[in-house]
Structures are given as structure tokens and as C-alpha cells.
Amino acid sequence: MFKLKPAHGALFLASALFAGSVYAQTVKIAYIDPLSGAFANVGEAGLKHFQFMAEEINKRNLTGGPKLEIVPFDNKVSPQESLNVLKKVIDSGIRVITQGNSSGVAGVLIDAVNKHNERNPDKSILYLNYAAVDPDFTNSKCSFWHFRFDANSDMKMEAMTDYMAKDPKIKSVYLINQNYSFGHAVTKAAKEYLARKRPDIKIVGDDLHPIGQVKDFAPYVAKIKASKADVVISGNWGNDAALLVKAAKDAGLDTTFYTYYFGGLGVMPSIGAAGEGKVKQITEWHANIKPNKTEKFANAWNAKYGGPPQNLSYYFLRVNNQMYMLANAIKQSKSIDPKAIALKLEGMKFESDTGEVEMRASDHQLIQPLYISTVAKAYRDPKDPKTAKFKGTDKEVKYDLEDTGYGFKTDARIEGYVTAQPTSCQMKRP
Fold it and tell me: What's the count of helices (H) and strands (E) in the chain, helices before strands?
């Protein structure tokens, strides 16, 4: 299914029992993400996916020996709690961590891992980032010990604004984002890139709201409605995305949303039919891409967990890439030492389900294709009891989200070399 191409490249994991290049029976990976609170559904979905992938890799012996084990830790999306968790991880002997939800968390983890590794070169920690997309992490704050498997927010905004710039009907934009590093990055990039590509587009609103604390977005939606913006750009994720679209639906807001994570869990049930043709997202994958090479994976997922497989898996293709690349790095290095794995990860090329991806050696940013897609009615097949209740006629929209009858349809595919941007990374190497 996957073809791995040798190169410098590597990924994460470590175990309490490693020494040099000697394999351990089990390599433990600390999963540090929210398992309680407002974003628990997102964290739990990610945990299931990582556990599933570890099982698949173990069954196929893709590491060449060591088993992979995911060890969950609840950080409550708190930077301070994440530091407390990291100490527990280190004390337990785990030498590889993965995290993705919140760039605020990712920033403190990068700094803490760097300091730990400087003090303890023989007990180094490898940090595999699957979703925290602040561009600084592969620019001014880049680290030898950090690898990012999602496109950073500037890469996504570059692709998104290229697409927007071709639409002459867009004359005004409203920005609404979470008030932390990622939300600031989205806002900054949107203003800069639109000014460069379409200086005629006016920014008619710019809101930053507390992350995970707003219970009712009606006041924000009222401001958006009053602005008469043609487009809303939002990097909101998790419950903040679901509540925003719910408020938009309740208010009858008739505008187009360009988003990063509105395909995430809980969002589609909140907006349903109101999102048709109005909600767009930019992602590394969605359930209805063509050609769809992920259906085999989706079927295996469905067999294990039941229910529509894309509910939990479509959004996390980057997890597949990360885990397969990690396994290959362990196999190539014949080691579970974090430094050895990292050296194999650098430059690694991997044939993913959407085409070739590459872990850029200079900054540890994965270069990959991206997709812009729009909410559409899922295809109705009267002969299939799973889809007979749907309303769509477009056979390209085969999968819906969370049994809503609505899924995403591709507007554009943007190749990795187009989204790749220069890096200012001056990496300090061990």
C-alpha cells in the first residue's frame, strides 16, 4: 500500500529500555493532548487513531523488530499542565512524544524538550508534532528534536488566498480566530497575503476570542453579519469551530467560510444543510478525494470501531504519514535512540495516499499536497441502506460526516512544491 523511499528521515518514539542501537521489545510514545474539557472529543479521536496505527504497524512488523505502544497523557490544552505531563513522561523513561492540539502547548514543549536535551544528551526526547501549525516552529523556533507532519498555517494560507484571489466576487473579508499564537498567525498571514494578491479586498472585521471559553458566538456572528463581509476566514478548531458555525446557522448568516478545521468532529452536525456551498476548508486530505486510496484504511477502521469510518479518520491522514515514517526510520536506523531516528527522518521521502511527501531536512517541515474543498450533499444511492436517506446526486461525494448527509467535495488540489515556503530556520544540531 505504501512505498517508502530511503533518505534521511525519521520519527518519534522511544522506550524506557533503550541503549544505543539495541532494539527494545516495546517502544513507547507519549500522546500528550486534551482528554478532558472542551476539546476532549478532538483529543480522544486522535488517541484512537494513533492506537489504531500502532496496532497496524505492529501486525505488519514495519519497524523491523520493536513494537509500538501509545501511552496517553491528558494535558487539558494547558501549556503549564503540558510541562507537568512532560516531566512525568521523562521520569517514566519514555523518550518520544507526540502532540498536535494547540500551538500554545507546542511552543512550550519545544522549548522544554530543547532544554532537557541540552542537559541530558544521553536521555534525549524526540517530539513529533502532528497538528500544531504555528509557522515559527519551523522558522525562528525550529529545533533538531521537533518534526512537524501538518502543513504550517502560512503554507495553508498561501494556498487558500491563491484560490480566493481568483474569485472576483470576493470584495470583503472578516477574520475571527482564537486568541493565541496560532490564531495570531492566521490573522497576520491573511492580512499580508490578501494585501499582496488582492489589495482591493477590504478587511472589515478582525476578532480574537479566548480559546475554549466562549459558550455562545452569537455576539461575534452579529458583528460579522453587520459587516456584510463576503467571506469569513477562521482557524478555529474543536468546540470553538462547532459553536461558531452553530451561531452562524442560528443567525441565518449568508456568507462563505474559508477555514482550516471546519471538517473536524462536531462541526458538520452544528451546521448541516446551511453549510452547503458555504463552508470551505484547506486540509491535507478529506474523505472524498480522487483517486481515493484511503478506502482500504477506512474499511479496516470501520471493522474495528464500527460506524462511518471517516468520522474519526478522515481528518488525520497526517497521523498515518507520521506513524509509517516513524516505523521506517526505526527500521532504517536499526535503533530506537531519538537522535538516530531523527537523523533518518531528515529528508525522508514517503509515498503517501495523496502522493509523495518529504520531511524537509532544513527545518523539519513536511512538504505535502493540500486540498481546498466545500461542503456538499452526500450521494444518494437508493439501493444502499447507508446512503438511501441522503439527498445528493454527485457521485464524487461518497462519504458524509457524522451521519449528517453532508461531506466535502474537492475544489482544488495544490501540490507540495507550490505550498512550500522559504524557511528562516537556523537549526542548532547536537
Answer: 13, 16
What is the H or E stretch that residue 233 is in?
strand 231-234
The confidence score (pLDDT) of residue 349 equals 97
Q: What is the pLDDT of residues 212-262, one digit of tens each?
A: 999 999 999 999 999 999 999 999 998 999 999 999 999 999 999 999 999
- Nearest-angstrom CA–CA distance, 177 and 193: 17
Selected from 3.40.50.2300, 3.40.120.10, 3.40.350.10, 3.40.50.300, the CATH number assigned to the domain covering 154-283+370-414 reads 3.40.50.2300
370-377 vs 279-283, strand pairing mode: antiparallel
Distant-in-sequence, close-in-space partners of 374: CB < 8 Å, separation ≥ 6: 277, 278, 279, 280, 408, 409, 411
Residue 293 per-residue DSSP state: T
Residue 320 to residue 325: CA distance in whole angstroms: 8
The span from the CA of 274 to the CA of 249, in Å, is 6
Distance from C-alpha of 42 to C-alpha of 101, rounded to nearest angstrom: 8
- Residue 377 phi/psi, 5° resolution? -65, 135
Ranges in the chain, pLDDT < 70: 1-24, 306-315
CB-based burial label for 100 (10 Å; 0-12, 13-18, 19+) = buried
Domain 3-151+294-367 is in which class? alpha beta
Bridge-based pairing of strands 279-283 and 349-352 is unpaired
Tell me if residue 85 falls in helix, strand or coil. helix
Distance from the Cα of residue 328 to its chain's centroid: 21
Single pTM value for the model:
0.90
Sequence-distant (6+) residues with CB within 8 A of 180 are 102, 103, 104, 211
Cα gap 305→302, rounded to integer Å: 5
Q: Tell me, what's the pLDDT at 306? A: 67
Q: Which of 118, 63, 108 lies closest to 83, judged by CA?
A: 108
